[in-house]
Amino acid sequence: MISDVLAEASEKMNKAVDAAKEDFSTVRTGRANPALFQKVLVDYYGTPTPLQQLASMVNQEARTLIITPFDKSALKDIEKAIAAAHHIGASVGNDGNVIRATLPELTEERRKDFVKVVREKAEQARVSLRNVRRKAKDDLDALTEVGEDEIARAEKELEASTKAHVDAIDDALKRKEAELLEV
């Protein structure tokens, strides 16, 4: 019973850390990266569709991304969706076959804004970890056929697991901040 609760909590915490790292990858640094475009939704025949399902993306240069649609009729819709994604701030142009998204050079002020965004995402991830911990603690407290000593040991193990996952988020945050502030 206790091991099931701890295993479920650990699994959910791992997913929260992975989600945080994925969120961090969507915040742009000085380089063009296909991960920046993960959250871009294109209105494809009336359905919001993720960009990576409609096109392939390749880095041409440090700040330029080539987007090749699988369906050429979606070219204008993809271009419109990228231009509307203000969190990226890319200038977009197409030659009829591919779209070139060029990211502007980041200013110091913009870099600091992105650091704030990443810190907010990290705090959201920490909150989700705390929610998982709270639910697991409630589940442990609900166990009646287990002794108090075993529950106390399980709670210590839960705290250690939570701290390890919070540290993983903090490490990812430090790496992303260093990447953002790198000129």
UniProtKB/TrEMBL annotation:
Transmembrane segments: none annotated. Its main location: cytoplasm. CDD domains: RRF. Gene3D superfamilies: 3.30.1360.40, Ribosome-recycling factor (1.10.132.20). Residues 21-181 form the Ribosome recycling factor domain. GO terms for molecular function: ribosomal large subunit binding. HAMAP family: RRF. This is Ribosome-recycling factor.
